[in-house]
Amino acid sequence: MDLDGLLIDIEGVLAVDWAPIPGAIEAMAGLRDRGLRFRLVTNTTSRTRRGVAEALSGAGFTVTADDVMSAPAATGAFLRDHRLDARCFLVNHGDLAEDLQGVHLVDEDADVVVLGGAGPEFAYERLNRAFTFLMDGAALVAMHRGLYWATATGFALDTGAYVAGLERAAGVEATVVGKPEAAFFLQAVADLGVDPGRVAMVGDDVDNDVLAAQACGLHGVLVRTGKYRDETLAAADGEPDRILDSFADVASLLG
């Protein structure tokens, strides 16, 4: 591939539960040595951009918050730009206060229901309150639509399952801010300052990472780590441009 930049997923590609995938640290260092531009694009919602960078740095990667584009940060920007005065009811696992500065968070009389990352907070009482707000006319905003992710102990249910349930129950359609939305990928490419056709997205989710990026004019590269499954790839509506065993092989994309 003739590339000027990479978009790189984190969970399942560089690390699992913040433990580096073998060879990923060295591969990332190699990209920096070559001067290749990249952004880490993640739907991780348990940490802020700065928290993501700190976790990766603690694991051995050379990363700063400026390298990270996250769904929570994009959601904060979306709400400030489009719903500045809205009262927002947040359901999320993790502290995102830094990325949601300027967003008016409430527990009552919400104008917008915001779904972040799934976890213990996605219990019946809180989800039912979200449903009630939606039935009363609130809008639904989701940080992403991923159905599951890979952990050190196996797959775990993610936000997309709850998004689909609330959409169906309340008869609403969510505004999704993170992957697989085109605006998320294109903003990351704009940050790189290169043409989309010279950028590859590297991810472990064939639908939300790879095919979604290809629909935006990027190259799509799937890795066989993280949430990768043969049966998911076989059932997908398209094919990746390249498949790698892991991010450790990323240099092979660059010729």
What does this 3D model show about the protein?
By secondary structure, this protein is of the alpha/beta class. It folds into two domains: 5-43 and 179-254, HAD superfamily/HAD-like (Rossmann fold), CATH 3.40.50; 84-176, HAD superfamily/HAD-like (Rossmann fold, 3-Layer(aba) Sandwich). 33% of the residues lie in helices and 22% in strands. The protein has helices at 24-34, 49-59, 71-82, 124-135, 159-170, 182-192, 206-214, 230-235, and strands at residues 5-8, 15-16, 19-20, 37-42, 68-70, 87-91, 104-105, 112-115, 139-142, 148-151, 154-157, 175-176, 199-203, 219-223, 242-244. The strands form four sheets. It has a six-stranded parallel beta sheet. The chain has a five-stranded parallel beta sheet with strand order 7-6-8-9-12, with helices on one face. Strand 10 (148-151) and strand 11 form a beta hairpin. It is globular, with a radius of gyration of 18 Å. The N and C termini lie close together (7 Å). 45% of the residues are buried.
Q: Layout of helices and strands, plus pairs?
A:
Elements: E1 5-8, E2 15-16, E3 19-20, H1 24-34, E4 37-42, H2 49-59, E5 68-70, H3 71-82, E6 87-91, E7 104-105, E8 112-115, H4 124-135, E9 139-142, E10 148-151, E11 154-157, H5 159-170, E12 175-176, H6 182-192, E13 199-203, H7 206-214, E14 219-223, H8 230-235, E15 242-244
Parallel strand pairs: 1-4, 1-13, 4-5, 6-7, 6-8, 8-9, 9-12, 13-14, 14-15
Antiparallel strand pairs: 2-3, 10-11
Number of domains: 2
Q: Assign an overall shape.
A: globular
> What is the chain-wise order of helices and strands?
EEEHEHEHEEEHEEEHEHEHEHE
Q: How many β strands by DSSP? A: 15
Strand percentage lies at 15-25%
Superfamily at the CATH H level of the largest domain? HAD superfamily/HAD-like
Largest sheet: 6 strands, parallel
What is the CATH architecture annotation of the largest domain?
A: 3-Layer(aba) Sandwich
**CATH class annotation of the largest domain:** Alpha Beta
Structural class: alpha/beta
Return the CATH topology of the largest domain. Rossmann fold
Low-confidence stretches: none
Helix content: 25-40%
> N-to-C terminal Cα separation, in Å?
7 Å
Radius of gyration: 18 Å
pLDDT averaged residue by residue? 95
Which strand order do you get reading across the main beta sheet?
A: 5-4-1-13-14-15
Helix tally equals: 8
